[in-house]
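Hello K.,

You asked for the raw outputs rather than the summary table, so here they are, unedited. I folded two proteins back to back in the same session to keep the settings identical. This is the first:
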Amino acid sequence: MTPQTVAMLLAGGQGTRLGELTKNLAKPAVPFGGKYRIIDFTMSNLANSGISTVGLLVQYSPLMLNKHIGIGKPWGLDRQYGGVSVLSPYSSREGSAWFSGTADAIVKNMHFVEQYEPDELIVLSGDHIYQMDYTKMLEFHRGNGADATISAIEVPMDEASRFGILNTNDDFSIYEFDEKPEHPKNNLASMGVYVFNWETIKPYLLSDEKDEESDHDFGKDIIPKMLADDKKLFAYRFDGYWKDVGTIKSYWEANMDLLKEDFQTLLMSKEWPTYPNEENRPPEYIGETAEITNSLISPGSFIEGKIDNSILFVGVETMEGASVTDSIILPDAVIGKNVTLDSVIVMSEVEIPDGTQIVASNGDPVVISPDTLEDYIAEGGSHNG
């Protein structure tokens, strides 16, 4: 009954660059795509890849994330052996409970991995939007006799300095790893998806734990040490859609991408479904005055007015005369009569008063929370940028 592969899913990110969206919510738990949360994409990748032993490492504001994952039933992980286990930081005799880096999060939960005696450990992030068959990456890893394999994707050259860059030989063996280099040699970026031979990586984790100079991070510390020891590391090229929704703008862009024909398989693929943990809501109601163009309308919504190129989550209400364009309306928000929204993200349960106009400028979407809404109302109910 020992699984060949154990997955460790890092889901404790605070996501400070997402501002109001993560004020009281872990980044992987942020709503996405109408009826999903960001973590649903990685969880669905695991389910579709047949990986059924998963450790979910949580840290920052985990309440909603824990509730959402539950026993893992939507992803087939509600099982007696394996399944999903939520691994929270805990206090030990040695001191600090918080995870101080990606590698530290794994080493502090090494006992979870060890009980399964796996051949491989796959380390994943819970805050990326993508569809990936991990079994193909595992086959590539085994076929190359690799000690570690890092999934990589080509990014625009002018953005490469934001990522860990893999410098490779013709066979995709890695000879150098540059963590956010000022002058990158290429644009092949790490996706933060790692496969390690368990018996190979274990001593590196234990050694790193004792290193007081280390950041306890895979990209900054573990990978360079493995390369210095001439371990066999390979880059696994990924050619599909992948988005790190680390900023308000990238979060908005990733949601808007779902409305483009080229990317609709992210939600609608029968071969690679994305599984939500959705509430039981009634069907959406589309009223007589509703005009809907190229938008996603979720269950439980009550729609009047004009909706164009927007995503409305569950339980959203838009009133007569409302105009919503290029916007994301999170669960149970209410958009009043004759409201105009353009490139706006309205947070859950926010009620936009009648007649309010919020139009973003400079290409940056505006986030409306209960706190920021008060500022717009104080300015007279109208805002540009």
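The second followed immediately with the same parameters:
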Amino acid sequence: MNTLKNLISPKKIILNNEKEIQPPIPKLPFILVGLIIVVIVSAELTDFSFEKIIRNGHQFAAILAAMIPPNWEYAQEVIKPLKETIQMSLLGSIIGSILAVPFAILASVNVNHNKPLLLTIRFLLSLVRTLPTLIIALIATFVFDLGPFAGTIAIAIFTLGIVAKMIYEKIETVDMGPFEALEALGATKLKAFLSAIIPQILPAYLSNCLYCFEVNVRYAAILGYVGAGGIGLILNEKIGWREYDKVGMMLFMLFVTVVIIEYLSKYIRGKLR
């Protein structure tokens, strides 16, 4: 309570020579007022209503109840699209992780001293990270037609943006002494990078790649909504037909798959550390 009171109304500071220093103007009340205004405006713009939640919220429970028990006989039909989802995630993650390396090198301040190129690469990576995977998949379906190939491309682009950012931030914290020494001995930037920097960032790089694969399995599950293949296509279809017992089966199998991948990824990442 005293800490909160001091934040709202800080006490005067008295030095050893009995000189008083006026406390700074408290910022917390202004922050709280600003936050309240933002919440009120957001609620108005989004038509948020507790009344609607109370009136229709029970429908969530009704739909969940319709999914239990799941239709176990439908499991055989789920295996193929689920396998497709995992394959899309795996291939897209591998492609994106490999392509992220050169982009990460060009986006690192301590490796790339060409400022216009550096800023251009960072802008492109920021743009890629800004676009949701679903939007990238939608664009990919227009370019490459419907199917899992478009989903794989979308996942690869998303992975590229995330891994490249994580890696270039890691590169900027490494010891540049060995890199500069190899350059002084006549090695090219690429050779110096491979010999001096890659060993320092490799565990973090592999760990980030595994984490992205883990996340991509979740994202890939909804790419079928825009025709990019995977389990999302039949998931959307069964929800539309209100066949909730089959939806429950798909969600159950997807949950088990994600948990297994998550634990395997966590185990491998622990070994890498």
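The longest strand covers residues 13-14.

Happy to rerun anything if the numbers look odd on your end.

Regards,
P.
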